[in-house]
Amino acid sequence: MYDYFKQYPHDVVFYEKWIKDRLPQSFVDAHAHFNLPEHVSNVSAEAIAGDWALESGLLMSIEDSDTYLQTLFPDQSVFRICLPWPLRDADTVANNQYIANLIQEHDVRGLFTVRPEYSRDSIEEAFVAGHFSGFKPYPYMASATKGADVSIFDFMTHEQFKLANELKTAILLHLPRRGRLPDPDNIAEIHLILDRYPDIKLVVAHFGRSFCIEHFEKGLEKLGSDVQGLYFDTAAVLNPRVYDMAFNKLDHRRILFGTDFPIMLWHGKREWSDGQYHNLVREEFSWNRHPYPDQEKDYTFYVYEQIKTILDLLGSDEQSKQAIFKENALNVYDQR
Ligand SMILES: [Zn+2]
């Protein structure tokens, strides 16, 4: 467990006031990463120090997750879709096997990380034997640079997409490229995937890395009618303007709630300007620039802020709440 993970009295007050009775009693976290220390022992200290997300959290066993969830959501039961850590220097074979073990031994579902060099046969065998519910490819497998200008097919090949299509399974896609969702090459490749592999349930992670409204607005516009063929997850997204647009423009059956634990276990929130987000955090990470030092001790858990934002916008729409917080993820990542 991360030492920095602490619950303060004001967190309990926030939970009881804004979340406890409004969040469904049972819900699904459709985006959290699970591993053991030995799976990421080759990830260098420089790589971790160079990426705020990895510094925030790179390790989470199922037991750690139990403790985090019992602390954060004492009145809810949380069903988990377990993702491996799709990093280049991770031991992907062992991490996938860990997820397969969790599927077998716990009441969870899991996704399988592919590497572009994996053969179709080896993927199919491990995927079927492990009862996985989808794939989790990641741009890191083609380039170690965050937001690198690589093609989706550089980190998940057409042969692998073809297999996913035959399996009629889900792919949780973290988009590459600096331009994020509206990048013309991302838009073209999404179109190609929907066109060529129609039986894949394509979930675009983090609303297409649209942490800022500018990317989401432009992205939806450029996707046009393709948007109706996609699912989106909410992992790590806090921006109320993004959620407002999502709830207004997307079919609520296509939005899946996710946290991105163990990255988002800290206290804080975000502000946004000119298409960029800035993390405001209480904990002493190296990336904490302390822009508002007097306010830091009052920050509650980021995930509480995220859930409150969603609940405020959905209001009394219980049907949408059930869809977004539970049913959609169970339908998309189906039991195998
Ligand atoms: Zn993630």
Structural features:
336 residues; five-stranded parallel beta sheet; alpha/beta; TIM Barrel; binds zinc ion; three-stranded parallel beta sheet; globular
Could you characterize what this model shows?
By secondary structure, the protein is an alpha/beta fold. The chain has 14 helices and ten strands. The strands form three sheets. The chain has a five-stranded parallel sheet with strand order 4-5-6-7-8. Strands 1-2-3 form a three-stranded parallel sheet. α1 packs parallel to α13 and α12 packs parallel to α13. The longest helix has 15 residues. It is globular and about 55 Å long. The mean pLDDT is 97. Zinc ion (ZN) binds next to β1.
Helices and strands in order, then pairings?
Blueprint lengths: L8 H11 L6 E8 L11 H5 L2 H5 L5 H11 L4 E7 L8 H14 L3 E2 L9 H10 L4 E2 L16 H4 L2 H10 L2 E4 L10 H13 L4 E4 L1 H4 L3 H11 L7 E3 L6 H10 L5 E2 L11 E6 L2 E6 L20 H13 L3 H15 L4
Parallel strand pairs: 1-2, 2-3, 4-5, 5-6, 6-7, 7-8
Antiparallel strand pairs: 9-10
